[in-house]
Specification:
This protein is an alpha+beta fold. Among the domains are: 175 residues; 124 residues, C2 domain (Immunoglobulin-like, Sandwich); 117 residues, C2 domain (Immunoglobulin-like); 122 residues, C2 domain (Immunoglobulin-like, Sandwich); 116 residues, Sandwich (Immunoglobulin-like); 123 residues, Immunoglobulin-like (Sandwich), CATH 2.60.40.150. 18% of the residues lie in helices and 37% in strands. The strands form twelve sheets. Strands 8, 13, 16, 17, 18, 21, 24 and 25 form an eight-stranded antiparallel sheet that branches. Strands 1, 2, 3, 4, 5, 6 and 7 form a seven-stranded antiparallel sheet that branches. A six-stranded mixed sheet has the order 46-45-54-47-48-51, covered by helices on one side. A hairpin with a 7-residue loop joins strand 2 and strand 3. The longest helix is centred in the N-terminal third of the chain and has 33 residues. It is a peripheral membrane protein; Multi-pass membrane protein.
């Protein structure tokens, strides 16, 4: 790029970009020759031009005074003039900065190599990628191709905007019917690729390219709305970023590559020069706002996790998977604290230095989280947790920016960036990271959560999450990705729905869109206009706290949201039993047409942290943090130590809790809150109930479009005898934005705790109408196991499908102290705390600072649903030092003790350390269940009815041995206990639930089944209500593998009146798969029950002999 001396004087670098029409690769000598030749022109025209420019400049300055004159003529104050002047100066400053930035960027791109060699002192951020990174290649050949294609790309863009975009804009709004593109020019400055980096693919079927692109163009696009004489446009733009291109899948046929995916890994930087009416967007404040809104639009289209997919071959498989692949993993970000931040607050014009009010922005791709503000603290402690999905490794970064909150503009305190690949390698990364561009450090704990395609470790994950205190949201146990593909045969013009007349006048075809909701999280698809068989091809992602109990609610609606075209509620528990936690099928829509259905693919993945030492580090300054200057005078000392106690000494209130069972039945005459078409069309409401009691909140399911809803849900809460307690009840209408209030009521617990039962219709307050039917029952724990079998049987009968499993007992635990906890050589004593866990409920004690013999003196209570199988899990951990010991206490050990209580020292499983605790169990017996449960089991056949031995009759008071009592408490009795027929027996409970008008059948188990082949069968039970043989009355249990004595304990319901139930027969067949590839089923035995001959009011479990049947057809 050097010039010869014969070229004469060369222009300065600032003058070189003045000819924008020159190609970027043209040598500077060309500029020199042209400038020299122009120097021989006559000077006359130049003098006239200077005079004209002088007059133009004078005229512009004169025009500036016109607003001042007009303000004085109208009588406005000087403040308006000053405000307008300030606004103009701000606009001018933003405009000049953009033009200066464009000039500098064009200068660098026009003569990149010479300026790069000349300005090597520039920071790495300003240098091209091929200079900063040796593995990034400079692809000038690719830039030459782009430059050659650029004019033709401009022609294509002009056609696209004028023939496609403009008609769509004109049709979207009647006010824009005169919208046109008056000028579309991409200019002569093409897009440049500054560097190309090729990554080794994650698999052999893909190629990964990172293109460092830079566009500093003289693009000019002008639009006009002639009706309103409005003109606007763009003149010049900058766009810089890293575009990732993935070529996959690689196939064995031409064109070798099946599809191309493109996306920005991080948000690109954007700078736009506006013209016409959009000049207003360069006003300070609006400038950054407009650029942010445009960047958000680009991010929603081309920044991870969004991507542009271009299929290159027809009928490409797994297009949805390519367009929205599963994340590589999840990173759980614990934003713990910061220290040594800079002070930004100043008082008395800077004479007095204050502190800062810091908050942090955490960003990964388009996922952004904002922490709370800590006022006046240079060492803030946030203690917040966020979860982000990671799609590309390497490439994506975790970015944390810290700001000082101010009323006007927040001050920047520093930032840190970290590649997510380092978290993947480490698994768990806990460190203080220095802030760049400021001072101080930020403390992060980063955990990489792998995605498991099976539910084997779900219970382990849920148990761990219960012991984690996380804010603002609880930790997630799984993610759900929903691929929304298409719908079929949606209702057209109210064919299957009752529409108001206002809606029937519009298009016959609907404009369907889909709302997907899980609890309080709702996402929406795009709208497909005038189509009753829409294709969306979109993906939605949800975090799940407990996939066993959560549901996916799908609503197909018209674009106006005034009309529901169909609905679907899918319990996520179905995915837990599906192969690879995936469902890929058509789903029938309810409240829709007979053939209306939705095709979706649902993929669940369990979030698993694979680390042997998982604990949360101590945040500096928290209670229990180790102080190197402090010593524990009592550690290891036995001087004047009190004698070791043999039993606990809880206070008098321990173990006096009761359980309140709240049965939310129904409501009547609720007010209608839904309004459509600006209030012209009156709808109904989607009511649900919120309950608050004893510091806990409960929420019922949502009943769609019903002013007389029936919930029939049961909630249970542990209550004390403290006077003055009230149950707060609120009813709401579920909406997308803010739920509408439908009424409230309060119930004093004094009467319920005294009488034990309350069944009332409550009038809803603060609303014109509405009442709620509630049933409350106090359950007092009884310290005897004699009635446990009856309680379990009654709970199984009155259990509602929408409620959690009912509690059979209450466990009260008092943890007094621990001793002899392990010490590590050369370290201070630990700061221990304990976690008590039963099922999905945990209690964490306080932390005792630096001692191996902590005294906690804390109690906790737990609802127990299956005392025979559940256990109390205790973990002792040191704050910042990890696990110190654990204990697992099966509750079946309490069932064989006097008063169902254990009070003693327990040795921790590591052999070091003991804990002193008291655990007592109380059986919860309902006196108002409406079921007369029996503790007898019967064996029934066509010839005889033989009674089994009583389970509890004649049982001496706590004199049986533990194995004998456990055997008596189990549902699945041994085949030796009663004679079975040659084909075996099935144990059933058949009962009519009059409150719900439902026939209920519980399949408990089978025993002594027949084995025909070499291997045991894979049995399941099929139930059919005769004389109907259609699928509407058919029920089927799950299948058990290779057993002659399967345990089912599954409940089934049929909605029908009692008189009709008495005319039916229940056909029960026990079957087994004959082979893996065959649909044939082997009949192991069957029994047919005439319901008119059974006392359906009793709900007793009975054994029935299985009979042979000549008909062995497939099920």
């Amino acid at each position: 790029m050097e010039r010869s001396p014969g070229d004469g004087s060369s222009p300065s670098p600032a003058d070189q970009p003045s000819a924008p029409s020159d190609p970027p690769d043209q040598p500077p000598a060309a500029h020199t020759k042209r400038d020299l030749s122009s120097g021989n022109q006559p000077a006359g025209p130049g003098a006239a031009g200077e005079a004209l420019a002088l007059l133009t400049s004078f005229g512009r300055r004169l025009l500036v005074l016109v607003p001042v004159y007009l303000a004085g003529a109208v009588g406005l104050s000087v403040g308006f003039v000053l405000f307008g002047l300030a606004l103009y100066l701000g606009w001018r400053r933003v405009r000049d900065e953009k033009e200066r930035s464009l000039r500098a960027a064009r200068q660098l791109l026009d003569d990149e190599e010479r300026l790069t060699a000349k300005t090597l002192y520039m920071s790495h951020r300003e240098l091209p990628a091929w200079v900063s990174f040796p593995d990034v290649e400079k692809a000038e050949w690719l830039n030459k191709i782009v430059a050659q294609v650029w004019p033709f790309l401009g022609q294509y863009m002009e056609k696209l905007l004028t023939e496609t975009v403009a008609p769509a804009v004109r049709g979207s709004n009647p006010h824009l019917q005169t919208f046109t593109f008056t000028r579309v020019e991409l200019g002569e400055k093409p897009l440049r690729i500054l560097g190309v980096k090729v990554h080794p693919g994650q698999s052999k079927e893909q190629i990964l390219l990172d293109l460092n692109i830079s566009y500093v163009g003289d693009v000019q696009i002008d639009v006009e709305v002639k009706k309103y004489f409005c003109k606007a446009g763009i003149k010049g733009m900058q766009l810089h970023g890293v575009l990732r291109v993935i070529l996959e899948p690689l196939i064995g046929n031409l064109p070798i590559v099946g599809a191309v995916s493109m996306f920005f890994i991080r948000r690109p930087t954007l700078d736009i020069n506006w013209t016409g009416m959009t000049n207003l967007l360069d006003i300070p404040g609006l400038s950054s706002l407009s650029d942010t809104m445009i960047m958000d639009s680009i991010a929603a289209f081309l920044v991870l996790p969004n991507r542009l997919l271009v299929p290159l071959v027809p009928d490409l498989q797994d297009v949805a998977q390519l367009r929205s692949p599963l994340p590589r993993g999840i990173i759980r970000i614990h934003l713990l604290a910061a220290r040594g931040l800079g002070s930004k607050d100043k008082y008395v014009k800077g004479l007095i230095e204050g502190k800062s009010d810091p908050y942090a922005l955490v960003r990964v791709g388009t996922q952004t989280f904002c922490s709370r503000v800590i006022n006046e603290d240079l060492n803030p402690q946030w203690g917040e947790t966020y979860e982000v999905m990671v799609h590309e490794v390497p490439g994506q970064e975790i970015e944390v920016e810290v700001f000082d909150k101010d009323p006007d503009k927040d001050d920047f305190l520093g930032r840190m960036k970290l590649d997510v690949g380092k978290v993947l390698q480490a698994g768990v990364l806990d460190n203080w990271f220095p802030l760049q561009g400021g001072q101080g450090q930020v403390h992060l704990r980063l955990e990489w959560l792998s995605l498991l395609p099976s539910a084997e470790k779900l219970e382990q994950v849920l148990q761990w999450n219960r012991g984690v205190s996380s804010r603002p949201e609880p930790p997630s146990a799984a993610i759900l990705v929903v691929y929304l593909d298409r719908a079929q045969d949606l209702p057209v013009n109210g064919d299957f729905l009752i529409l108001p007349p206002q809606l029937k006048k519009g298009n016959k075809e609907p404009n369907p869109m889909v709302q997907l909701s899980i609890q309080d999280m709702t996402q929406e698809s795009k709208a497909v206009y005038s189509n009753n068989c829409p294709v969306w091809e979109e993906a939605f992602r949800f975090f799940l706290q407990d996939p066993q109990s959560q549901e996916l609610d799908v609503q197909v609606k018209d674009d106006s949201r005034a009309l529901t075209l169909g609905a679907l509620t899918l319990p996520l528990g179905r995915l837990l039993t599906a192969p690879e936690l995936t469902l890929d099928q058509w789903f029938q829509l309810s409240s829709s047409g007979p053939n209306s259905r939705l095709y979706m693919k649902l993929v669940m993945r369990i979030l698993y942290l694979d680390s042997s030492e998982v604990h949360f580090p101590t945040v500096p300054g928290t209670p229990g943090a180790w102080d190197p200057d402090s010593e524990s005078s009592q550690a290891g000392s036995s001087v004047d130590a009190p004698p070791r106690p043999c039993h606990t000494t809880p206070d008098s209130h321990f173990g006096t809790e009761n359980v309140l069972r709240i049965h939310v039945l129904e409501a009547q005459d609720l007010i209608a809150k839904d309004r459509f078409l600006g209030g012209l069309v009156k709808g109904k409401s989607d009511p649900y109930v919120k309950l608050k009691l004893a510091g806990r909140s409960f929420r019922s399911r949502v009943v769609r479009e019903d002013l007389n809803p029936r919930w029939n849900e049961v909630f249970e809460v542990i209550v004390t005898s403290i006077p003055g307690q009230e149950l707060d009840i609120e009813v709401f209408d579920k909406d997308l934005d803010k739920d509408d209030f439908l009424g409230r009521s309060k119930v004093s617990l004094t009467a319920v705790l005294n009488t034990g039962f309350l069944d009332e219709w409550l009038t809803l307050e603060d609303v014109p109408s509405g009442r709620l039917h509630l049933r409350l029952e106090r359950l007092t724990p009884r310290p005897t196991a004699a009635e446990l079998e009856e309680v379990l049987q009654v709970n199984s009968l009155i259990q509602t499908q929408k409620s959690a499993e009912l509690a059979a007992a209450l466990l009260s635990v008092y943890l007094e102290r621990a001793e002899d906890l392990p010490l590590r050589k050369g370290t201070k004593p630990p700061s221990p705390y304990a976690t008590l866990t039963v099922g999905d409920t945990s209690h964490k004690t306080k932390t005792i600072s630096q001692t191996s013999a902590p005294v906690w003196d804390e109690s906790a209570s737990f609802l127990i649903r299956k005392p025979n199988t559940e256990s109390l899990e205790l973990q002792v951990r040191g704050e910042g030092t990890g696990a110190l010991g654990s204990l697992s206490l099966p509750l079946s050990e309490l069932l064989v003790t006097d008063q169902l209580c254990l009070d003693r020292w327990f040795t921790l499983n590591n052999g070091q350390g003991q804990v002193l605790l008291r655990a007592q169990l109380g059986i919860l017996v309902s006196q108002h269940s409406g079921v007369e449960a029996h503790s007898h089991s019967y064996s029934h056949s066509s010839s005889s009815l033989s009674e089994e031995p009583e389970l509890w009759g004649g049982l001496p008071h706590i004199t049986s041995s533990a194995p004998e009592l456990r055997q008596r408490l189990t549902h699945g009795d041994s085949p030796v206990e009663a004679p079975a027929g040659p084909l075996g027996q099935v144990k059933l409970t058949v009962w009519y639930y009059s409150e719900e008008r439902k026939l209920v059948s519980i399949v408990h188990s089978c025993r002594a089944l027949r084995q025909n082949g070499r291997d045991p069968p894979d049995p399941y039970v099929s139930l059919l209500l005769l004389p109907d043989k259609n699928r509407g009355t058919k029920r089927k249990t799950s299948q058990k593998k290779r057993t002659l004595n399967p345990e089912f304990s599954e409940r089934f319901e049929w909605e029908l009146p009692l008189d009709e139930a008495l005319r039916r027969k229940l056909d029960v067949s026990v079957k087994s798969n004959s082979s893996f590839m065959s649909r044939e089923r082997e009949l192991l035995g069957k029994v047919q029950l005439d319901l008119a001959e059974i006392d359906l009011s009793q709900g007793a479990a009975q054994w029935y002999d299985l009979m042979d049947d000549k008909d062995k057809g497939s099920s």
